[in-house]
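I'll show a record.
***
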Amino acid sequence: MKLTKKQIRKSIFDILIYILGGSLYSIGINSFASPNNIAPGGLTGVGVIINHIFGFPIGVLIIVLNIPLFIIGLKELGKYFLIKTIIATVTMSVLIDVSAAFLPVYTGNTLLACLYGGLLTGAGLALVFMRGATTGGTDIIAKLINRKFKFLSIGRIILLMDLLIISASAIAFKSIESALYAVIMIFASSRIIDSALYGADRGKMLFIITSKPEELSKAIMKKVSRGVTMLDGTGAYSNDIRYILMCAVRRHEAAKVHEIIKNIDNKAFIITTEAGEITGEGFKDLYTP
């Protein structure tokens, strides 16, 4: 299929954003996290640990560890989303290894190192998320595990994996403090991502008024794995029948839903509101305090 000029411009812009995000992320890892023995969770954290023990380049390790996940996750992610994720992951990984040769290293106050490392990695990841991609890794693993064990939310699975990686870093670096600083860095990074994407809210509620309710709801359920409620409505002025889709998503998923809507019904009317708390399947457990 031949790409239009608009699609080509969008693809080029996406890649430029990935480069910018990857640059910020690589500074956070090479200048602050890795020199201070801080493994920031995810496959990057695994890469930092292996790099410390064997000296293998972190970026190469991230790509190698992601390859089987990309193959396994093809069905879960979808072809288009997978391509964007591969491009973002490779771009970020290459920048981590290339910049390692010339970036200055900070080994002063470790608390400052983990805070600035979290700020930079969070900003870098937020830019990638804004363009509808991820950096693979534990996100894919969590989605695959969630499909088999529905009682475990994706957020909890990622948290458990990060805790395992952080615990491994304490053993590898022979320092409990390194693990504690990693927790601070992960927290700082997640807060930056939240603030950059949609603020500090816990989720988003989307109300979509569309003429293609069936097609849209199926696409959202398939590509984002979120439930959709269909409501009947009537236009007050025209008296025409309208269909309203109601969908609750996590912060980072809202941009992907908007992309889906734009591709299927670019005349849809969308209302996105902040959800202070979402409880139920796929989110916080109803009985969790």
Remarks:
- The longest strand covers residues 241-249.
- The two ends are 51 Å apart (CA to CA).
- The CA atoms of residues 18 and 40 lie 20 Å apart.
